[in-house]
Amino acid sequence: MTKKIQSALISVFYKDGLDSIVKKLHSLGITIYSTGGTQKFIETLGVPCIAVESLTTYPSILGGRVKTLHPSVFGGILARRENETDVQEMAQYKIPEIDLVIVDLYPFEETVASTNDDAAIIEKIDVGGPSMIRGAAKNHKYVVVVGSKDEYSFLEDLLNEQNGETTLEQRRLLAAKAFEVCAHYDVAIAKYFNPTNADYFLESVPDPKSLRYGENPHQSASFYGKLDEIFDQLNGKELSYNNIVDVDAAVQLINEFKVAENNETVFAIIKHTNVCGIASRKTLKEAWDNALAGDPESAFGGVLVCNAPIDKITAEAISEIFFEVLIAPAFDADALEILKSKKNRILLQQKNNFINKQQYKSLLNGVLIQQNDEGNYSEWKEAGGRETTDNEKENLKFANLVCKHLKSNAIALIKNKQLIGKGCGQTSRIDSLRQAIEKANQFKFDLHGAVLASDAFFPFNDCVQIAHAEGIEVFIQPGGSIRDKDSIEYCVQNKLAMVITGMRHFKH
Question: What is the rounded CA–CA span in Å between residue 288 and residue 312?
Fold first, then answer.
């Protein structure tokens, strides 16, 4: 059903981009109703405008809290033009039809982000705006609704191309978008009042971006969010689904490591969300060389991340292998020139260390939600046959963080703050250990002097025995098994060091 717009009600917070629409409405002979600041803005354009107060016979009251909440306004929005009773009541109470509603809501989220003043935040909860949007969207059979400035260009195109006429399909499309605007707005308000322990799963993320495909080419996928708030992309193709998953893993890992007072830097290589190479060294180039040496095979096609600016000498070394993504806090100009030589290389400059405080995933017919895994250990209990040395303590802390970012069951072998062997994603801890030892042997690492980290407890003493046979004498694990004493007693008897952290880092 095609319908021509005869009248419009405009009430917006931001006026940007509104002037050309107002002028077009006027040129089409459309009557405009408005309120407060919007009315003044329209009049400065030289366009006549009828104050809403002339419909309601009430001024704006309560500091602007009540302007449009009146039957003379909502009757004009909600009236069914083909319903005889509605038409009679409209005539009886002298209520004009309103065919177009343009509303831009109070900036609630922006206010929450900019202040802790609860009173100021509360005042930015729009009441009349969402009510008009919902009313117009409900009555989209007759009314066009624009619930956000994001739809201004679409409306302007309709006005220019169809001279104020709209189809039912177009009105329904705008109504659907308007309901989304209201839903997002309400979620933001609800989360402000109850940020935790809500009775509903409340999450609303705007800005969907279609991806080429999901984990596999036959799966469709989208990403909701604003990656440009975290990164500046300096080169390369668009991020894929798998890229984004690995980038998230890389950022979570590197956020664990701050540049120390002695200017040690960390370089890591991620493959399928697991760390396959990582090292901490005095210079970035040394960190890269040692991270790569840990598993040069797995590094092929990986995601690279570091906590220091990329310099020329490191860029030259990195360019010798194929990688998908490189993330760094900054890039020297000459380094960037080298890295940009491959047009598809994705280079991301990380602007902040934002990490969600909660994680969630859709499972079965619901959603799982949990707190993000923060921290390294809750206690440091020396439980073995000897105390750890200062150097061993530093390597154990490093190992425990690395192991935290491997899929369970996970084992990390660290020597001189370099990952020299890892086992992950295995169905038994002993298989993960065998895998880690095999990796270390494959690339000719001497396990004597290495430390071993486990993401969960040792259910038996077999892992400690096997590692000891390979020359490993220092262990870190969360503990918690009913048979903790088995591995502890083995360490005591053989004068091996074992630290119990009390914090498991299981990861699916």
Answer: 13
Global pTM reads 0.86
The answer to whether 339 and 331 are in contact (CB under 8 A) is yes
Residues in the chain where the model's pLDDT stays below 50:
260-261
In 3-state terms, the chain is what percent helix, strand and coil (to 5)? 40, 20, 40
Catalytically annotated residue among 138, 191, 340, 342: 138
Residue in the structure block whose two tokens are 């940007």: 16
Does the annotation count 272 as an active-site position? yes
Evaluate the omega torsion of the peptide bond into residue 263 and state whether it is cis, within 30 degrees of 0: no
Average pLDDT in the chain:
90
pLDDT tens digits along 60-69: 767 777 667 7
The active-site residue, picked from 191, 209, 272, 342, is: 272
The β-bridge relationship of strands 451-454 and 100-104 is unpaired
Angle (nearest 5°) at CA 210 between 206 and 215: 115
Adjacent-strand bridge partners of 391: none
26 catalytic residue (yes or no): no
Which letter does DSSP use for residue 263 in this model? -
pLDDT in tens, 179-191: 999 999 999 999 9
